[in-house]
Specification:
The chain is an alpha+beta fold. It contains 2 helices and 4 strands. The strands form 2 sheets. A two-stranded antiparallel ribbon has the order 1-2. A two-stranded antiparallel sheet has the order 3-4. The chain starts with a strand and ends in a 9-residue tail after the last helix.
């Protein structure tokens, strides 16, 4: 699926592939969610591997960094 984020067409599978680069992530899914000013925004859900004790907030920050490096800033519309 391709979502339109502020005029940028982004493949949900490319976002999922970027999330799966994180060493603590076992699986991921991405959906486009309607947003008034940007058209859609990606909603990224992930499952960590068994035994991971790192806080979810830290993993999320690391995933955002990976997405920005692999796909670009337009794919991550949160500060």
């Amino acid at each position: 699926q391709v979502i339109n984020v502020a005029g940028h067409r982004i493949s949900t599978s490319s976002l999922e592939d970027a999330i799966l680069r994180h060493p603590d992530v076992a699986d991921a899914a991405v959906f486009g969610v309607p947003e008034n000013t940007k058209g859609q925004v990606p909603l990224c859900l992930y499952v960590t591997k068994d035994g991971i004790k790192k806080p979810a907030a830290k993993i999320s920050v690391e995933i955002i960094k990976i997405i920005r490096e692999v796909i670009g800033y337009e794919a991550v519309l949160i500060s």
